[in-house]
Amino acid sequence: MNEPSGCADAERQKDRVPPVPGPAPSGPTVPGPTVPGPTVPGPTVPVSVLDALSAGVLLFDATGAVTRGNREALRLLALAEGELLGHDPVRRPRQLLMSDGTLRQDDDVPYRWATHEGRPRPETWFGVVDGDQPVRWVAARYACLPEPTSECGYVATLTDVTRQRRLETRLKVKRERLAATLDASPSAILTFDGSGKIIACNLAAAGVLGYPEEEIVGQDVISLVPEKRRREHREGLVHRDGQVEWHPKPGSREVFARRQDGSVFPVRMSLKEFTTNGERRIVGILDDLTSQKRAEEYLNGFFSESLDLLSITGLDGNFVRVNPAFSDLLGFTAEELMSRTSLSVVHEEDQHLVLQKMDEYLKYLDGVQAPNGTGPEGVGSPNTPIECRFLHKDGSARWVRWVTSASHDRKLFFGSGQDITAWRTDKEWLSRLAAVLEKTTDLVAITDSEGVLEYCNLTARKLLGLPEDDLAEKKIPFTRYMPREDRRRLLGTAIPTALKEGSWSGETTVVDVEGREVPLSHVVLAHEEKRGVTGYLSMIARDISGAKEVERLKSEFVSTVSHELRTPLTSIRGSLGLLAGGVVGELPQEAVEMVTIARDNTERLIRLINDILELDKIALGRVELSVRRLRVYRVIHDALETVQGMAQDSGVEVRTRIPDPSLEFEADPDRIVQVLTNLLSNAIKFSPENSWVDLSAERHGTDRVMFRVTDRGPGIPADKQGTLFERFVQVDSSATRSKGGSGLGLAICKGLVEQHRGRIGLVSAGGDGSMFHFDLPVRSPLRLAPDWAQAQEDDGACQDPTRTAVIMAAPGPAYQLISHELELRGVRCRRARDLVSLCGLVHGQQHPLVVLDDRDHDEELVRNWEGLMDCLGNVPTLLLLSEGSRSTRLHVPPCWTRAKYGDDRLAKLVDELVSAAPDRV
Q1: Distance of CA 87 to CAs 18, 21, 112, 534, Å?
Q2: Closest residue by Cα to residue 716 from 681, 740, 683
Q3: What is each CA distance from 646 to 365, 671, 707, 748, 770, in whole angstroms?
Q4: Residue 318 DSSP class
């Protein structure tokens, strides 16, 4: 840098202050200063004058070199005297820190300090770094002299602004922290001017109100208010001297705000007014209450719709709020409960329990901890419910399971409970029932679905020597106390039957604590815990040792008496028969009548004795069943033949209905015919003259066949129906009864049906006849007779063509009727679907009857009439003609018979055709 011109005299050199560089401007570098006016020599300023100034002063020549500086300037710049005079200020060892925090060491630093875009820079700040000393901040102000000289082209004044700089830095940090805090706040914070326009906001405000951050500033407060509520907000706007002033109500309140998209949402608004620099400002804090309101709606909905009893009480014990379930339970309205204390609705005998529970709970909240840290000593969990009685408005008590909790400030107490009145009542009844079961003389046990004991009453425990407690944990099977055969029966038959059908009953045997076998009348019941899932079994048994002994003695007595009576009675019947037959000579008519009466009574006594012996065999299980595979129609046919004479004598018709004559089942044919004969005999005996008895058989479910016998008699009273199947029981047991009988027939029927694993019952209403029914399994669990295969062969012999009729008809009423009638007469039926199958079945065979139903085959018959004549030849044929049939105009051979479809005499006509078939062949 060149030395400044115009400074040659010694005095000026003596007083010269070393040049000091000023801070460089932040603007672009300009290639030279522009100093107004020509440079001319000027007056010299004494050094003493400059040193007397409190501010630092630097004088620069036109080239930017320092020509003079006072002591304050040297101090501020941390320079020694003479370090800058005539030297490049950049070459000094000290560094200058610019206002942007960077070190500036450029060659043109002094010049760029002084100028900015060709003009003197009015002011700049820079920091002086002096070793390890703190940075000293200096403000430099520049001015061009109006009349520059060769020594001074412009002047700079330096001021120490370190303290001001630090204050501004702190203020800046505070502002930045405040801005960050406001932006991080979840609440929307807005600053309004005095007219109600937004002048500042945080990020949350922009997000809540739905405005972009740059657009929300300048919005009017009215734009944030919903349309319907703007009127009340406009009341806060005041017009003064042509200016609008906003004077809102201070404080916090809940209002509705409007987003930019027009949606409305609830907020809690807090406003605070303040003044800064003489101007009014209003700060508003908005908290979005949408989630809170929604939660309150959910809570209110839950509180109102809950089936549990809910209440809120205050510190004074008064109700603050109750839900409808609570008020409905007690019969009070919500308003009536609001005027009561919670203790007033508690039964007086239970109030001490409630107070004790509340005292323990408050101690728990006070932090009185037990040694284990879970609560006060002797105090349970704060949420442990209690059972107490609440009083209804009518004075009755309601049992409630209740639990109480407190709010965090303990100003409110929340109670919830359930009505357990019915449960308490059931519990009391269960306790009574348990006491009854414990003391009953029957054996009562509860087991799981596999027969493992879970409970036994006192009688069972004493008989079997069972422990009194922990029975379920010891896993003891009930079968442990049974003999081997009974064990197999219980596990193989009784329990599976109960699981399938719901119950099983029979006789079993257990071994008591002394080793004796005790016979039991045993019932097993299955109980469901879930739908379709058996949870447990109950077993009820009675010791029948005494009854067995009495039954044995009675059976022996009856058997002995019966045998002793039957032998002489047989001899008496034979003798009376010989007398009536004239062996000893012809008797007078009066004697013949008396002998006949005596013989008839003798036969009745013999039948009675035979029935008693039959029942004795059934009771002792000595009846041997010869189970075979049977057809339903065969059994019914044999039973009808047995009672046909009795029915004709009584003027009663027996009508049968068998939907499926080919239905088969397995049973002893003689015993089932005996059951049907007994039921039919009773039905005929009690039916009025010129009436009828219905006999039907059909499939029942998937694996059983049901027989029904229905009469038109007077019916059976309800009080007699329960004992009608017992021995010697009759509906009319008076001495003047009109119908005879021993009262053993139904008992025999019951025994025989049950031996076949069947069930028998009756349905009757007084004056409207009776219906006896019994069902048998299609596949008998009993062992089939060894000759059942031969029975099948005998049954199959009916397929002989001479005993097989062919029917071409669609399945329907006519086909069922004809096939049924033919089956009853021992003629099997085979159905042909069309003429081709018909001719295949008939070709070369001689059948007793062929039936043609033209209802579905009219056209086929007409088209193939000639071929049909050749195929059938002289086979007896029944042609069923429907209305409008074309077959009525065709010629038929003499062996054919025409009949109308649906003729009531069709059954009789079939009987005649089958009976005459051998004569027509």
Answers
A1: 8, 11, 17, 113
A2: 683
A3: 94, 20, 21, 20, 19
A4: B
Query: By percentage, how much of the chain surpasses pLDDT 90?
Result: 8
pLDDT for 84: 60
What pLDDT is recorded for position 392? Answer: 92
Nearest to 825 by CA among 852, 801, 848: 848
- Alpha-carbon distance of 874 to 911, in angstroms, equals 19
Structure-block tokens of residue 324: 């409808």
Residue 185: predicted pLDDT = 79
Task: Give the type of residue at 325.
Answer: A
Q: Rounded to an integer, what distance in angstroms lies between the CA atom of residue 477 and that of residue 522?
A: 16
Q: How far is CA 636 from CA 349, 412, 640, 658, in A?
A: 74, 84, 6, 9
Residue 232 burial (C-beta neighbours within 10 Å; 0-12, 13-18, 19+): exposed
The angle formed by the CA atoms of residues 605, 607 and 609, to the nearest 5 degrees, is 70
What residues have CB less than 8 Å from 612, skipping those under 6 apart?
A: 558, 562, 744
First to last CA, the chain: 160
pLDDT at 550: 82
Rounded Cα–Cα distance for residues 86 and 72 (Å)? 19
C-alpha neighbours within 13 Å on the C-beta side of residue 233: 16
Q: Which residues of the chain have pLDDT under 50?
A: 1-42, 87-94, 105-118, 369-380, 733-738, 787-798, 919-921
Q: How, if at all, do strands 115-116 and 759-764 pair?
A: unpaired
* Look-up of token digits 């059934």: 618
Between strands 66-69 and 56-60, the pairing is antiparallel
In a 10 Å sphere around its CB, with 0-12 CB exposed, 13-18 middle and 19+ buried, how is residue 628 labelled?
buried
DSSP code at position 460: H
Residue 1 half-sphere exposure, CB side, CA atoms within 13 Å?
Answer: 26
3-state secondary structure 540-576: EEEECHHHHHHHHHHHHHHHHHHHHHHHHHHHHHHHH
Enter the DSSP assignment of 37.
S
Residues 6+ apart with CB under 8 A from 595: 576, 579, 580, 587
Q: What per-residue confidence (pLDDT) applies to 844?
A: 63
The whole-angstrom separation of Cα 97 and Cα 113 is 13
How is residue 491 annotated by DSSP?
Answer: I
Let me know how long the chain is: 921
3-state SS record for 753-801:
HHHCCCEEEEEECCCCCEEEEEEEECCCCCCECCCHHHHHHHHHHHHCH
Q: Which residues contact 334 (CB under 8 A, 6 or more apart)?
A: 321, 322, 324, 327
Could you tell me which residues come within 8 angstroms of residue 364 by beta carbon, excluding any fewer than 6 positions away?
375, 376, 379, 382
SS3 136: strand
405: enclosing H helix or E strand: strand 397-406
Which two tokens mark 665? 């089942």
Element (DSSP H or E) covering residue 699: strand 692-700
Q: Which of 169, 132, 155, 143 is nearest to 53 (CA)?
A: 155
